[in-house]
Specification:
Elements: E1 15-16, E2 44-47, E3 51-56, E4 59-64, E5 69-70, E6 73-74, H1 82-96, E7 102-103, E8 105-107, E9 120-123, E10 127-128, E11 131-138, H2 141-150, E12 152-153, E13 156-157, E14 167-173, E15 176-177, H3 189-196, H4 199-222, E16 225-236, E17 242-245, E18 254-258, H5 274-282, H6 296-314, H7 318-324
Parallel strand pairs: 7-17
Antiparallel strand pairs: 1-2, 2-3, 3-4, 4-9, 5-6, 8-9, 10-16, 11-14, 11-15, 11-16, 12-13, 16-17, 16-18
Helix pairs in contact: 1-6, 3-4
Length: about 325
Amino acid sequence: MLVAETGRLLGSSATPERAPIPPPKTAGPAASLRPMPTVADLPLIASGKVREMYEMGDRILMVASDRISTYDVVHPTPIPGKGAVLTGLSAFWFAKTGHIVDNHYLSATEGVPDDVRGRAMAVRRLQMLPVECVVRGYITGSGWKDYQATGRVSGIELPPGLRESERLPTPIFTPSTKAETGHDEAIDFDGAAELVGDRDLMARVRDVSIALYEFGAGHARERGVILADTKFEFGLDERGELVIGDEVLTPDSSRYWPAEGYEPGRSQPSFDKQYVRDWASASGWDKTPPAPEIPDDVVKGTRERYVDAYERITGESFDDWMTRTAA
């Protein structure tokens, strides 16, 4: 989630902190010689389930952690490299989609402290819109449940007889609220327009969201990956122009499936945290805090899926991203 001009994190479950988090441990004598400040030297604006936001002059430092949550609860076990995958993929997509809509990304290296290189980016400040912008190209997840019950998703009537995971005739825009606590609530376009307070702006957000999804889905398909659905967040810059912020088309904000073996009529294996969610659901955990430790084999399998998603979609080694952003 992004930070508004006031420094307040809008429309997310993140909560402001009064003091910065402790710095990560550094190793070796060279660490003490680095002129670059660590994140602990920067004012912490807010901390969420996955990210921290720091003041950095006229910019914001957005740091993605290796934390992972299921059912809105953070597990005590991190997924090594997950934060770098989210940051690297977002940087990749921001560079690819600038012709569709402007974005908040500035740099993954310039001004970024050494201790968070690879998983952090400097971004512009935005006044975030109070809606989550979900686009679905396939009927799955909560959309599948709604369709089974009503034949609709977010007020949009769909053809009868669709099977689970089936591709929709055209992608649909199914926005939701940004819940401060608990789950986001699905709303229709009219509800989203009311929250934003500008129907024309919301129509532009809808059209841009669908264009981003179609572009991302086309690229992913060429790489042997299906982009089933995704979620975007938008804000307005100092000129009042629409800008996409937060993360974009990552395994945390999107549902990616391998194209090989895809078959409608059932759930699909995925590159996102559904792997952890499936384990958590079968573990006997009652989905209330505290979340259980994640077993080593599930951690390993999850990391492999995130890295695989990065490498398939970008066409480069994940190690290349880490080398390119290294201090």
